[in-house]
Amino acid sequence: MGGSSGKVLFNSVWVIVQHLYSMLTSLILVALIARHLGPYDYGLINYCASLISMFTTLCGLGLDNLIVSEIIRRPEKEGGFLGTALVMRLAVSLISYPVILILVSVITPGNHTLLAVAALQALGMVFQTYEVFVYWFRIKLKMKYISIALVCAITINSVFRIILLARKATVEWFAFSISLQALAAGIIITVLFIKKSDVRLKASWADAAALIKNSYNFIISSMAIIIYMEVDKIILEKMTGSASVGIYSAAVVLATCWEFIPVALIDSSRPVILEKRKVSHEEYMDLFKIVMGGVNLMAFVFALIMSGLGWIFIWILYGGAFMEAFVPLIILSWSSFIGISGYTRTIWITGEGFYKYEKRYAVTAMLLNILLDVLLIRLFGIIGAAVATLITYVYEVLIVPLFFRETRAFTAMYFQSFRMIPEFTSESVKMLRSKLARKQQERE
C-alpha cells in the first residue's frame, strides 16, 4: 500500500474531522430540535426529508460513482464532464422541485404545514448542485478544502438553529435551516473551485450522452436504494402516524451517525484504488480488500457499542418520549454493519465495469423491502421497519451477488476482507506514527 495509503488516510482525516464536527453539532442540535418540536412535528420534517431524498438522488444522476472513474480514464475530458454534469444536475433539480410539491399535495391534501415544510426543505436539493465540484476535489485528493467549506456552512446553520430555538420558532423555520446549510456550502465551494482549479467548464450533448450511457444503471440503482432506505418512514407515517416517524428517525440518526468515517475512507480510496487497477490487478484487489476490512472493523465496533449503550444516548439526547427507539436502534446498527459494505462494493463494481448488476441488486432489494415493510410494520410497528431494513441489507449485500456468475466473487471477498483487518490496522498505525514523527522533527 505504501504511499497510496498515506494519501488516502491523510485525505480521509480531513473528511472525518469535518464529519465529526458535523455529527457532534448535529446530534446536539437535532436532539434539542426534536425535544422542542416533539415527535409529531419532528416526524413531519423527517417524512418530508424521505420524500425529498428520493428526488435528490435522482438529481445526482448516478454520477457520484461514475464521474471519478471516467475523469481518471479520460483526463482530457475533465472540463467537459464536470460542466455537463453541472448543467444536467441543475436542470433536473429545477424540474424536480415543483414535482415534489405536487406529490406532497396529492399524498396529503389539505395539510398546509406539510406543504410549507416540503417547499422550504426542497430548496436544498437545488442548492446541492455544487456537489459536482466536489468530484474534482475528490479526484485531486484535496478534500481538505471541501471539509473547511462544510465546517463553515455547518457553523452558519448551527448559529441560525440556535437562534430559532431561542425564539421558539415553528417547524417551517427548522425546515428552511436544512436548505440554508446547502446554500452556504454551495457558495463557499463554488468560490473555492474557481480559485483552486484551472478547469474550463463546458457542456455538450455528446458528453451528456456519454455520461448517461454509463450512469443510467447507477441512476436506477441509486433510486432503488434510496427508496428502500426511506420508504419505511413513508409507510410508517401512513400506518401509524407522524409521531412514530419521529421516534424511528431518532433511531436512524443514531444508528448511522458513525457512517461518515467509513464513507470518508471509501471516497478517498476510490481514485487511488482505481488508479492501482491500471498497474496491477492483484494490488488493486488487495487494496480494495484492505479498505473493506477496515470498514467492517469500524462497523462491528460501533454496532456493539450501540447494542449495549444505545438507550443511554437516546435518553440523553432525545429524552423519555423517544425511548421506544432503543430496540430499532440495535437492529438498525447491525443493518449498518452489513449495509456499509454495499457502499464499498461500488468501487469494485466501477473498476470491473459491472454497472448493470448494481441496478439488478437494488431494484430487487427495493421490492423486497417494500413488501417486508408493509407486512412487518403492520405487525410490529417501528420494530418491524427496522427488521425489514436488516433483512434487505443482508439480501442486497451478501445474497443477491451469488445469483450472477460475474459478481459471485464479491460475497467471498466480503468474508476474506476480515482477514485484512490486521494489515489495515498496521498501515493506519504506521501512517499516524510517521505523521507524528514529522511533526516532532518540525518542532525541534
- Whole-angstrom Rg: 21 Å
**How many separate domains make up the residues?**
1
Summing up helix and strand content along with how strands pair, one would put the structural category as mainly alpha
N to C succession of SSEs: HHHHHHHHHHHHHHHH
Number of helices: 16
* General shape: globular
Low-confidence stretches: none
**Residue share in helix:** over 70%
Q: Tell me, rounded to a whole number, the average pLDDT.
A: 82
Q: How would you describe this protein?
A:
The chain has helices spanning 2-60, 63-73, 78-107, 112-127, 131-139, 143-166, 171-196, 205-240, 242-256, 260-279, 281-317, 326-352, 355-380, 382-399, 408-416, 421-443. The protein has one domain (2-434). The chain is mostly helical and 444 residues long. The model has no long low-confidence stretch (mean pLDDT 82). The radius of gyration is 21 Å and the shape is globular.
Task: List its salient traits.
about 450 residues, mainly alpha, 16 helices, about 85% helix, globular
Short description:
It contains 16 helices and no strands.
What's the layout of helices and strands?
Blueprint lengths: L1 H59 L2 H11 L4 H30 L4 H16 L3 H9 L3 H24 L4 H26 L8 H36 L1 H15 L3 H20 L1 H37 L8 H27 L2 H26 L1 H18 L8 H9 L4 H23 L1
Helix pairs in contact: 1-3, 1-4, 1-6, 1-8, 1-9, 1-10, 2-3, 2-5, 2-8, 3-4, 3-5, 3-8, 4-7, 5-7, 6-7, 8-9, 8-13, 8-14, 9-11, 9-12, 10-11, 10-12, 11-12, 11-16, 12-14, 13-14
